[in-house]
Amino acid sequence: MPNSKKRTGSTLDGGASPAGKHQKKDTNSAAAQNALEALRLLSVVVADTGDFETLKKYVPQDATTNPSLLLKAASMPQYAHLMDKSIEAAKKVHGKVALDDAFVEEVVDQLFVFFGVEILKIVPGVVSTEVSAALSFDVDASVAKARKLIQMYKEHGIEQDRVLIKLATTWEGCEAAKILEKENIHCNMTLLFSFAQAVAAAEAKATLISPFVGRILDYYKKAHPEKVAEYVGASDPGVQSVKRIYNYYKKHNYKTTVMAASFRNIGEIIALAGCDKVTVAPALLEELSGSDLPVPRVLGAGTENAEEVASPPRGSQENGVTKDEADAEKLEMDEKTFRWMLNEDAMATEKLAEGIRSFNRDLLSLKDMIREKLRKM
């Protein structure tokens, strides 16, 4: 396959609006030089990385970060200066260097913002900065942390409409988003695996959701190993999940942007071409840029419900509802309904809890790294 790396700015859709509103083009993908360029004609491409060199290479519209990505980036020698700057900034806030939890937490906040500021020097759109996973079930603390992060960005000259605050899509996360959105602090609802979560996020008027694709596939491959070969393209359970959410949102005129996330292969990405946004890891950006696979529009521009979505594995309810329920009347979501639907969805329950634990574990590792550096000062 050809390995053309030429990119043109003209294929980047969308402005710096947090919702990423843009005019999608139905240009034939054959006009593009590779699959990445073809995808950019249909969806806003976002880079799922904290590595500046990757951002410069692929020129995405936006960038997303999380504790796992920033732990990886902070471990790279070329970003040591940002850790140093974060410690100095924390020292100014607290008056002295310390090893206590409050000081280390301040360093983490400063580090997240310093990375975000540098990323915004590269991407023309927005950056997503995550609230600690440890606050996933605490509305007040999540709101307070989000306000603090936005204020810190403002102190660096970054307007709040260029920042998305990432919150886990728990009930509490949605309640926090509801408060923050009223203050024009825009939210990216992450760790989203179910229809119930998607409805709750939209009802909270969240700016954007990040429904995970690959982690849903991981679950079903493990649960149904005999069907692994079937889980490709439109039959991939993660792809089905995003399609269902996307079509439901468009049918009921929700303004929340759908940004598909957590891909395992480029087939999943191509199967969702036309989704509002897609956030893609560097390895898959590289693979797309070296591929000449066609990228036809699957979502948007009159394609809603055009394809029949395969039924979820027998004996389960994908995302807690059947396809017919998802495509039917608008669902009224309250806390009892949310918790029951999530409880009945074994996949989403497991993956949400697993994701929160994983992000928190990596955040604790980052704090350990900071403490080790502080001890040597």
UniProtKB/TrEMBL annotation:
Tell me the route in metabolism or biology where this protein functions: Carbohydrate degradation; pentose phosphate pathway; D-glyceraldehyde 3-phosphate and beta-D-fructose 6-phosphate from D-ribose 5-phosphate and D-xylulose 5-phosphate (non-oxidative stage): step 2/3
Q: Which UniProt keywords are listed? A: Pentose shunt, Schiff base, Transferase
Q: Which GO MF terms does the UniProt record name?
A: transaldolase activity
Q: Which organism is it from?
A: Neospora caninum (strain Liverpool)
Sorted alphabetically, which CDD domains does this protein's record hold? Transaldolase_TalAB
A Gene Ontology biological process noted in the UniProt record is: pentose-phosphate shunt, non-oxidative branch
According to its UniProt record, which protein family does this protein belong to?
Belongs to the transaldolase family. Type 1 subfamily.
Q: Does the keyword Transferase apply?
A: yes
Q: Name one GO cellular component term.
A: cytoplasm
Q: Which Pfam families match?
A: TAL_FSA (PF00923)
The segment annotated Disordered runs over 1-30, 303-328
Q: Which InterPro entries match?
A: Aldolase_TIM, TAL/FSA, Transaldolase_1, Transaldolase_AS
List the HAMAP family hit by this protein, alphabetically. Answer: Transaldolase_1
As recorded in UniProt, its EC number(s) are 2.2.1.2
Against PANTHER family, the record matches this protein to: TRANSALDOLASE (PTHR10683:SF18)
Name recorded for this polypeptide: transaldolase
